[in-house]
Amino acid sequence: MQPASEPPTTSTTESARIVVVGGGVAGLIVARDLARAGFAVTVVEASQRTGGQLASTRVAGIEVDAGAEAFATRGGAVEALAVELGLAADIVRPLDSPAWLVGRGGRSRPLPAASVLGIPADPRAPDVVRVIGRPAAWRARFDAVLPLRHPDSYRTVGDLVRRRMGAGVARRLVAPVVRGVYSTTPDALPLEIASPGMRDALRAAGSLGAAVGRLRAASAAGSQVAGLRGGVHRLAASLADDALAHGARIVLGARVARADATGVWLDSGERVEGGVVFAAADIAAPATRTRTIIVAIAVVDAPELDGAPRGTGALVEAGAEGITARAFTHSSAKWTWLADELPPGRHAVRLSYDGMPDDPENTVHTDLRAITGARIDRLVGLDMRTWTRTLESLPVSNGLDAVGEAASVTGLASIVAGARETAREIAERNSTDVTAARSGGAEG
Ligand SMILES: Cc1cc2nc3c(=O)[nH]c(=O)nc-3n(C[C@H](O)[C@H](O)[C@H](O)COP(=O)(O)OP(=O)(O)OC[C@H]3O[C@@H](n4cnc5c(N)ncnc54)[C@H](O)[C@@H]3O)c2cc1C
C-alpha cells in the first residue's frame, strides 16, 4: 500500500470519516467535494494511478487522452467543475463537422445532419435518401402517419426504429452509429440507456421523426460536446490535486476486497474505517453488463489527411469489407490544440475495436487507409489499450452510496452531476459531525 499523501491531522468523529472505493473521476469528485466540506476522506485505489478511464498516453512524443476524450455539455456540470478547478481557459470545442458512415462496398457518406443515434428527423431529406436509398426512405415515411399507441412498448433502439421507420433505417443508419458508439447492436441497446429523453419526446411528438426533431431542438445550438486543451484526463489530475490540497488521503495500489457500511477491508487484510462511497464497479454490486473496448491511438505521417477527408471521424457498418475497426476519430482534426502540437502532414487518430487484432500495427494501417481513402505513409507511433466498462450493475443495497459506473451511470456529464449530488447529500446527512470534527481538530 503506497500513500500518495500523508493522513490528515484533524481528529474526526466516526461519521465524518469517509472511505471512497475507487479513484476514477466519480470517486475523486466525491473525495474532493467532501474534503472541501471538512470530512476526513481516504480514497482507496487499486491501481497505481488515479483517474480510472480518464487517462493519458504518450505516442510519438505527444500526450493524448487514452480513455474519454470529450464530455457532453448538456446540464453544464462538467464545465462548471472545470471552471471551479481553474481550467476555464482550457475548455475547447471540437471542429463542427459531421461524422461519416463507412459502409459495405466502400461507400462513404456523411451522417445525415438532422439525426439522433442515426435516426433521421426527416427520412425524406436528401442526405438520408443518399444513404438508405429510395425504397427504404419511402417505408420510413410511414412513421409520420402511423398512430403511436404505446411508447412504453419499445424496449430497445432496434425495436423502436424498425417498427416506426423500417429495417432500412435500422440497418443502414442506426446500426453503424450504435456499433461505433456503444459497441453493440440496436436490438441489444435499451432505449433508456441510449436516449433517456426519447420516450417522453415520442409521447409529446407523436412520431419518431418528430421526436428526434424535438430532441435536437432541445439541445443547445452548436457543438454538444467539449474537451480540454491537453486532454480531458487533466480533469482527474486537477480533482486529485485539489482533494489532496484539502487534506484528503489517496492510497494507491490498494484493492478493496469487501466493504460494509462502516468501512472496507483491503486485499492485504487491512481495515479502513469510515462511511463508504462506492466508486468502483463490482464491489458494491455485481456488474450485469460490461463491455470491452480496444482503443488504438496512432500518430501517422499522412499529408493527404490535411484536408480531413472524413471530418472528425467515421462509423463503420458491420461487414464493411477489409475493415476491422468499428469507429475512427481524426483526433487532430477534431481538436485544434492537438493539431498545433504536430508538424505539418502529421496526424493523431484513434480507432476502436471489439477485440485485440492479431497484428495491431498492420490492422491499424490497413483500416486507416480503407476508412479515410488516404495514403498513409507510416505509423510513427501506436498505443493499444484494453478497457472494460460497466454498463449496468445490480442496484446497490439501500443506504449505501454509489457513484459513477458503480451506480450504472455512464458518461462524464451524468457522472459529474450525479457524484456531486451524492457528495452534497452525504455532507448534509453528516453536517453536525463535520462541525464537531472541525472544532475538535488540529486546526480548531
Ligand atoms: C475508451 C473510452 C472512451 C470514452 N469516451 C468518453 C467520452 O468521450 N465522453 C464521456 O463522457 N465518457 C467517455 N467514456 C466513459 C467515461 O470515461 C467513464 O464513464 C468514466 O470515466 C467512469 O468513471 P468512474 O469513476 O465511474 O469509473 P472508472 O474510471 O472506471 O474508475 C473506477 C476506479 O476504481 C478502481 N477500482 C476498481 N476496483 C477497485 C477495488 N476493488 N478497490 C479499489 N479500487 C478499485 C479502478 O482502478 C478505477 O481507477 C469513455 C470510456 C472509455 C474507456
Describe this structure in words.
By secondary structure, the chain is of the alpha+beta class. The chain folds into 3 domains: 2-54 and 232-286 and 394-440, FAD/NAD(P)-binding domain, CATH 3.50.50; 57-96 and 289-390, Alpha-Beta Complex (Polyamine Oxidase, Chain A, domain 2), CATH 3.90.660.20; 114-218, protoporphyrinogen ix oxidase, domain 3 (Orthogonal Bundle), CATH 1.10.3110. It is built from 15 helices and 23 strands. The protein has a 7-stranded mixed sheet, sandwiched between helices. Strands 1-13-3-2-17-23 form a 6-stranded mixed sheet, covered by helices on one side. Strands 6-12-7 form a 3-stranded antiparallel sheet. β10 (115-116) and β11 (119-120) form a beta hairpin. The longest helix is centred in the last third of the chain and has 18 residues, at 412-429. The radius of gyration is 23 Å and the shape is globular. Flavin-adenine dinucleotide binds next to α1, β18, β22 and α14.
List keywords for this structure.
444 residues, alpha+beta, FAD/NAD(P)-binding domain, protoporphyrinogen ix oxidase, domain 3, 7-stranded mixed sheet, 6-stranded mixed sheet, 23 strands, 33% helix, globular, disordered C terminus, binds flavin-adenine dinucleotide
Q: Walk across the major sheet and give the strand order.
A: 9-8-19-20-21-18-22
Structural class: alpha+beta
The radius of gyration over CA amounts to: 23 Å
CATH topology of the largest domain: FAD/NAD(P)-binding domain
Strands, count: 23
Please indicate the count of domains.
Answer: 3
Q: Tally the helices: what do you get? A: 15
